[in-house]
Amino acid sequence: MNENSIAPAAVLWDMDGTLIDTEPYWIQAESDLCTAHGAVWTHEDGLSVVGNPLKVSAQALQDRGVELPIPEIIDALLRQLTTAVRGHNPWQEDAHRLLDRVVARGIPCGLVTMSYTMLADAFVEQADIFAVVVTGEEVTNGKPHPEPYLKAASLLGVPIERCLAIEDSPSGIRSAHASGARTVAIKRLTPLDPLPGMSRLRTLDTLTDVAIASIMRGEIIDELGDGT
Asked: Are residues 83 and 106 in the same domain?
């Protein structure tokens, strides 16, 4: 960070959608599973569960007609996603650039994802730079509950209010915001409703050292205005 700027004690990153563009992989896996069971799953159905705990997505698939127990639905989705990510890690390029800058400045990073360890490991194997990783099966309450972000800050040994959290889904945004972290919502696939004190960006390239310092001081950067 620049001299006299305010650096976060840690940056907490969502994975799916924020760091890597896996949402199309998820929607395809959900659709494939439904097709195999004679059910229908649309792109809009996939968007409706973006960022939710996997049990929520699995329940939606079961309700749609996938005749498998929820743990088996989750396992099937994770195996397809893990294979896809190992074959091609679909970086969000603006996130990749920001992550590189944050790491170069010596700021600790935490990964906070509702995906399970199987998939998180496939990503971390290719980006082994996270001081802590919190996954969906490691918390009692998933996003939008604040527990995942509070746990990551606790594991890092830093105050949550000194953390910068970066999210893209409504569920994840509410989780980060409720935790007390300085929250940045990045526009990817889903609309982003405003929340008090939250910044909304069209690109993470906006997060220069100066912009990050402003957000850490409590200022808001809103590139969406009235549009979500």
From this structure: no
Q: Are residues 45 and 138 in the same domain?
A: no
Are 206 and 175 contained in the same domain? Answer: yes
Provide the residue range defining the domain that includes 49. 23-87
pLDDT tens, the chain, 228 aa long: 444 458 999 999 999 999 999 889 999 999 999 999 999 999 999 988 887 889 999 999 999 999 999 999 999 999 999 999 999 999 999 999 999 999 999 999 999 999 999 999 999 998 889 999 999 999 999 999 999 999 999 999 999 999 999 999 999 999 999 999 999 999 998 889 999 999 999 999 999 999 999 999 999 999 998 766
The span from the CA of 189 to the CA of 27, in Å, is 12
Q: Measure the CA angle with vertex 126, ends 176 and 78; round to 5°.
A: 65
Please report whether residue 189 resides in a domain: yes
On whether residue 228 sits in a domain, the answer given is no
108's CB contacts (< 8 A; 6+ apart) are: 9, 10, 11, 131, 156, 158
In a domain, 137, yes or no: yes
